[in-house]
Design brief:
rod-shaped, about 85% helix, 4 helices
């Protein structure tokens, strides 16, 4: 009978040790998944931040070209407008990883459409009257300020999201 008690104790010890090892492995894998998730989110947040900066720069260049055209009657160089505006990519990243930034990104999208219309009007308008120039010039001059406002709001929210991950 004593030999059975020893074997039962050994089997229970093995089961208990295996259970503890399994639990420890589960905890470690779970922790590793959390770290990977945080790392991936931080990378996406950095990408969003970078895209916000690029888009603001591109759209501001477009608006500045329109303003210079109407204010100083200098033709817009189409080569300067070839910059890629990655608005779709930004919207996708925001939809997937930072939905709280959606209002700001949508506002930036509206401004982008306004600038695109201004550029198109500037290229196609044949009768550039003083009133037309004043209207278009004022719109073009106000765009960078609006862009920076929305971009800064988005970046502030993004900083808060990233801060939550690093706690």
């Amino acid at each position: 009978m004593d030999s059975w008690i020893g074997m039962i104790g050994t089997v229970l010890g093995i089961i208990l040790g295996g259970g503890i090892a399994l639990f420890g492995t589960y905890i470690q894998i779970s922790h590793q998944r959390q770290l990977e998730r945080k790392k991936r989110l931080l990378e996406k947040y950095e990408g969003i931040h970078e895209l916000l900066g690029k888009i603001v720069d591109y759209i501001s260049i477009w608006a500045t070209n329109v303003f210079v055209n109407v204010a100083a009657n200098i033709n817009i160089d189409p080569e300067k407008l070839k910059s890629e505006v990655c608005l779709d990519h930004l919207q996708m990243l925001v939809d997937f990883y930072a939905p709280s930034l959606k209002p700001e990104v949508e506002a930036i999208g509206v401004i982008y459409k306004e600038v695109f219309i201004l550029v198109t009007e500037t290229f196609t308008e044949k009768n550039k009257t003083s009133a037309w120039k004043a209207k278009v010039g004022n719109l073009a001059a106000s765009i960078p300020q609006k862009l920076v406002k929305h971009s800064d709001n988005a970046k502030s929210k993004l900083t808060a999201l990233a801060g939550e991950l690093t706690k």
